[in-house]
Amino acid sequence: MKLVIVKDYNDMSKQAAKLIAEEVTRNPKTVLGLATGGTPVGMYRELVSLHQQEGVDFSQAQSFNLDEYVGLPSHHPQSYRTYMNENLFAHINLPAEKTHVPQGDAVDLEAECKRYEQAIAQAGGIDIQVLGIGNNGHIGFNEPGSAKDTTTRVVALTQSTIEANARYFDSIQEVPTQAVSMGIQTILGAKKIILLASGEAKAQAVSQMLEGEMTADVPASLLQQHPNVTVIVDEEAASAL
Ligand code: GLP
């Protein structure tokens, strides 16, 4: 894995946005794999500005998000669909019908997972996947214990993830306990991966991902077997390396 250590959150966001913009410029039909959470917000802000100021064109691209909470309708203020609309989709020229986020309130969730996996395959696979990392080393919502051969499925969130994500909800009781998430195999199927981490709270997970053994107990460590991963971390997130 290629490791890039930058000074702070701002630099991390700029570097990541630059890589995405280069990819979309080189291949206008890029299939983007996108992530949510606090970490990529700055990267999306930079991408919006690259689109608005420098004309980076997303009109032929498409996107697949990693995950969505089970039970939240897409218009729910805390759904990942809403997050993506607000942080990115509303501000760039990626056609709405080319943006894909799992439907967390589908009546038949199993069918939804299958459909999502097939849609990724039909698009020719993901060209560049953006990832954050959970404090416990999760990627997407692949919590510790997620096996290498997992594909898009319904997963249970761990207590630590529910607690970490409670900051976005009015109370912890409102945080969904399940999500639809791409699996480890789905993520490893991406041609390129960029993983972002910022802040001291991520230092332990970053060190286990890069320097620890490859184990499902730290799902991000399974990225060690992927041939094209760039990890962009700020100094605080790199502090345990
Ligand atoms: C969430 C998301 C992940 C994200 C992680 C870290 O649960 N499902 O995709 O990477 O947690 O979030 P944050 O960037 O807010 O620390």
Order of helices and strands: EHEHEEHEHEEHEHEHE
**CATH-defined architecture:** 3-Layer(aba) Sandwich
**CATH class assignment:** Alpha Beta
Overall geometry comes to globular
Q: How much of the polypeptide forms β-strand, as a percent range? A: 15-25%
What is the fold-level CATH name, i.e. the topology?
Answer: Rossmann fold
Number of strands: 10
- Provide mean pLDDT, rounded: 97
Q: Which ligands appear in the coordinates?
A: 2-amino-2-deoxy-6-O-phosphono-alpha-D-glucopyranose
Q: Main sheet, how many strands, which sense, barrel?
A: 7 strands, parallel
Please state the CA-atom Rg, rounded to the nearest Å. 16 Å
Please count the helical segments.
7
Tell me the span between the first and last alpha carbons: 14 Å
How many structural domains in the coordinates? 1
Low-confidence stretches: none
Major sheet: order of its strands?
1-10-9-6-2-3-5
The helix/strand class is alpha/beta
| Helix percent band | 25-40%
What descriptors fit this protein?
241 residues; alpha/beta; Rossmann fold; 7-stranded parallel β-sheet; 3-stranded antiparallel β-sheet; 7 helices; 10 strands; 31% helix; binds 2-amino-2-deoxy-6-O-phosphono-alpha-D-glucopyranose; glucosamine-6-phosphate deaminase activity; NagB/RpiA_transferase-like
Description:
- GO terms for molecular function: glucosamine-6-phosphate deaminase activity; identical protein binding.
- This protein is an alpha/beta fold and 241 residues long.
- The chain has one domain (2-234): Rossmann fold, CATH 3.40.50.1360.
- 31% of the residues lie in helices and 17% in strands.
- It is built from seven helices and ten strands.
- It has helices spanning 9-26, 41-54, 80-87, 109-122, 159-165, 184-188, 203-211, and strands at 2-6, 31-34, 62-65, 67-69, 99-100, 128-131, 153-156, 178-181, 192-197, 229-234.
- The strands form two sheets. Strands 1-10-9-6-2-3-5 form a seven-stranded parallel β-sheet, with helices on one face. The chain has a three-stranded antiparallel β-sheet with strand order 4-8-7.
- Helix 1 crosses helix 2 (41-54).
- The chain is globular, with a radius of gyration of 16 Å.
- The site of 2-amino-2-deoxy-6-O-phosphono-alpha-D-glucopyranose has 14 residues, from helix 5.
